[in-house]
Every structure is written in C-alpha cells, then in structure tokens.
Write a structure and sequence with these properties.
Number of helices: 21
C-alpha cells in the first residue's frame, strides 16, 4: 500500500517527458485535456498516498549504503498537500494565460515534471533522496524562468541556476559529515548524531550547520543569498512566477526543517552562535525585503521582494527553536503559499487583460476587474496579518513563540521587526486596492471596462481567497497537528 506514494511522483514526470518528446498537438484542446487529466489524477493519487501511506519504500540503491528512499511522514504530507493544491489550481489558470505565449507544449511539459519532482522532494525519506530531488527541482524549474527566451529571462535563469548550485554545494559539504558521523541518513526526530560525537566535534558541526542553513536558505531567499529571487520571478510567465514564489522557495524551508530538527537536532544548536547568526540573518531579510518591496514600482517585482521578506518569517520561527514559534512557521508555509500564489495570479490576470505592469498604471482597475481586485484585497489582508485571515494566525503564533522562548534581545526584537514589516506590507499592497476601487473624480471610466478574465482564471483566485479566510477562522485543525510535531522534534 505504501508504494502508492511513488505513483504521484512518477506519473507527472513521465507524462511531462512524453509531452516534451511528442510532436505539436494539432488542436490546443487536446494538449489542455492531456495536461488537465494528468494534474487531476496526480492530485488524487497524492492525496490518497497522504491519507494512507505510513511506512517507507526503498526504490533502489545508489551504493550499498545509499538508498533512494521515500516515506510520507507528517511534515512531508503537509508540504505535499500544499504543493498539490497550488499546482493544480495554477495549472488550470495557465490554460488561459498561456494561450498567447509561444512554446506551450514545452511549458506544460516542464510544469508537469516539476510537479512530480516537488512531490518526490516532499516524500523523500532520507537525506540523499531529498538532496537528489532538491537538485532536480532547480534544474527542471529553470526552463519555466527561461520560457520567453528573452535576454533578461536567460540572464535571470542563469542567476537562478548559479545561486541555487552554490547553495546546494554548501549543503553537500554538510551531507558528507552527517553521513560519516550519523547513525542513519533517515529523518529522525531529535537528530541522527549521538550527543557524545557532537560534543567531541562541536566546532566542526556548528560550521557544517551554518553552511547548510545558508546553502538551503538560498532557495528560501535568505540574506545574503537572496538576489536571484527578485530577478528570476518577475521574468517568468505569470503562473510560473506564482508557483516559484509560492512553492519552489518552500523547498529550501523543508530542507532546513529536515537538517535542523531531524538530522542535527535542536538540543545541540539551541543557545549556540549558529542560532544567533541564523536569527540575525532572518530578521535582516524580513525587514530588508519589506523595505525593498515598499520602494518597488513594478507589481510583479514588488511581490517578489515581498516573498524574500515573508519566507524569512518562516525561517525566523524555525530559528527560535520553540514549539509555538515552529507551529507559526508551518502555518505560515500554507498561508504564504496560498496568498502569494493568489497575488501573483492576480497580477498575471491584470497583465494578461490590460498589459499594465506598474502599480501607478492600475488606478481604477477595480471598476473593470472587481472579482480580481477583491481577491487581491482579501489575500493582501492575509499577508499583512489582519484577522480573521490565515496570516494573522501564523504571525500570532510566531510572535507568541518568540516571546515564550525568552531569548535575550531576540524575544522582543523579533516581534517588533515582524510588526514593522507588517506595516510596510500594508504600505506596498493596499495602495493598489485603494486606487483601484477609488480612483478619484478625474478617472476615465472606460479605461478598464469589462476586463474581468475568464472563469478559468478567476475561479482559482476565489479558491485561494477562500482558503485564506478558512484557515484564519479554523486554524486549530492545522496548529494542533503542528504543535504535536514540534514537541516530538524538540
């Protein structure tokens, strides 16, 4: 029964490869039908595996001691659920958006392959399997960045590749040491290295840990290796930008959770200089990303800088190493994924319907695209942290966890910076809403008349907006699960 988790990994990868090798479809409807069926079937298989699988599955051995091993544990199931929901909805949004783009078959081919790779990353049961799919995630999502093949897209794709590889090699350095000194490579609550070994090699393992944090932090946009993100995300096609900012970056978050909580162990890291350095880097990133987003006039790039900031909310909660803070981080993984994908899809719908890319061009947009702008407004309130949205619940737990940890300076500095960042978030998101719905007396009412996109584009926006409110109203469904997980790994 547990072999079921291999199917949602293999199906979209094989289907994507077939699509790339196949000749062009004579009818576009045939292409969309093929992609739609693969997305839906993969989603059903993924959720069936999430609900039923508990034991591990070894696919094959790279060497006698290095198996490619899959296991659907709680944290993997959670990330896989978020990936599946987002990938299917953004995929259907793409059906309309990609109509006027070239090379649709190539786009959907890599879109499907990346879906399978992400599920492989989520269901990875040991360090070597996770690293394999982490590298594949970079390589196979890069064509989504390069899709338009313009000079800026190619340069952004290369920057994405170089930064990601540099980070992955830093992490690989740590993998060697964990393999040598650990009792296993399987993810284990509390860590896999004996306390005596950690004490004898404490200096070495602290260096190894900070290298792995920075290395995997590249994908999560953590300072000082964040610069690829605001370059790569805006140049990709709209739906690709959405999944890059909402989902791909979470691969770095998942890898960091695995390393800190299930390989090295928080008992060794708590109170060390590594924890202090990590908290400093995350808070710098939170403030810097919000400030850069506040100053950015291009909408998609503004949202990309916002991702830099919001991802480090998650990393800050993890760095505090306290159960409630970790609960807030995991809740923000889902909250941010749904909110940020919705924001990028709203921006994509606006660009698709009007061609407007800059914030100052959107005055009065709400008159012609009311559904789109209402969805944008609801998820924006969620990102700011206004109740009763998911963003409020996640940030409440983050702040309370930081205060409960009683770490000198950081217990109060963290919540203060999160609050300042929330104010900046309101400053760079809400002007679009205010000017969109209240353009002033001299506004030309015909500028955006009847620009609402087709249902295949606005229905996913409504679903994401509804999820933002539902999680905010009923957060205990998730927080109880997260708290239980946090207590097992600390």
């Amino acid at each position: 029964m547990d072999h079921i988790i291999l199917l949602p990994v293999a199906l979209p990868i094989l289907a994507g490869i077939v699509l790339l090798l196949k000749k062009e479809y004579e009818k576009r409807k045939s292409l969309l039908l093929y992609v739609g069926i693969v997305l839906v079937v993969t989603g059903l298989l993924a959720f069936y595996g999430i609900l039923t699988a508990n034991k591990g599955v070894t696919l094959f051995y790279i060497t006698e001691t290095l198996p490619i091993y899959f296991k659907a544990d709680m944290i993997g199931k959670f990330f896989a659920s978020v990936v599946t929901v987002v990938w299917i909805l953004a995929g259907f949004f793409s059906f309309e958006y990609m109509k006027h783009e070239k090379n649709e078959k190539r786009y959907f081919g890599f879109y499907l392959i990346t879906f399978g790779v992400l599920l492989g990353l989520d269901f990875a049961g040991n360090l070597i399997t996770m690293y394999l799919f982490y590298e594949l995630m970079t390589l196979l999502s890069m064509p989504l960045v390069l899709h338009t093949q313009k000079r800026e897209s190619i340069m952004a794709g290369l920057k994405y590749l170089f930064y990601s590889f540099a980070g992955a090699y830093m992490a690989l350095f740590g993998i060697y040491f964990i393999y040598k000194h650990g009792t296993t490579l399987e993810f284990t609550a509390g860590g896999v290295i004996e306390a005596a070994v950690l004490r004898e090699n404490s200096g070495l393992f602290l260096v190894v840990t900070i290298l792995m944090l920075i290395g995997f932090g590249v994908k999560a946009g953590m300072f000082p290796m964040h610069a690829w993100l605001p370059t790569a995300h805006p140049v990709a096609p709209g739906p690709a930008s959405a999944v890059l900012s909402g989902i791909i970056v979470k691969g770095g978050v998942l890898a960091i959770i695995r390393v800190v909580y299930q390989l090295i162990g928080v008992d060794f890291l708590r109170g060390s200089w590594v924890q202090t350095a990590w908290m400093i880097l995350t808070l710098i990133t939170v403030f810097m990303g919000s400030l850069l987003a506040f100053r950015e006039p291009v909408l998609k790039k503004r949202l990309a800088y916002s991702t830099v900031s919001q991802l480090s909310y998650i990393l800050f909660g993890l760095s505090v190493m306290e159960p409630q803070a970790m609960t807030g981080s995991l809740l923000h993984v889902a909250a941010h994924a749904f909110i940020k994908v919705a924001l990028f899809l709203c921006a994509s719908a606006i660009i698709y319907q009007t061609g407007c890319t800059r914030v100052e061009q959107l005055r009065g947009i709400g008159k012609g695209m009311p559904i789109t702008l209402w969805c944008y407004t609801i998820v924006s309130l969620g990102l700011i942290g206004i109740p009763p949205t998911s963003g409020f619940s996640s940030k409440w737990h983050l702040a309370m966890g930081a205060l409960s940890a009683e770490i000198p300076v950081f217990s109060w500095l963290g919540p203060v910076i999160l609050l300042v960042s929330a104010l900046l978030t309101a400053g760079y998101l809400l002007p679009v809403t205010m000017q969109g719905f209240f353009p002033g007396e001299d506004y030309d009412a015909s500028a955006f008349k009847n620009k609402e996109p087709k249902a295949v584009m606005w229905v996913p926006l409504v679903v994401f907006a509804a999820l933002t409110i539902m999680i905010g109203i009923m957060p205990n469904i998730l927080t109880d699960m997260f708290m239980a997980f946090a207590e097992t790994v600390m």
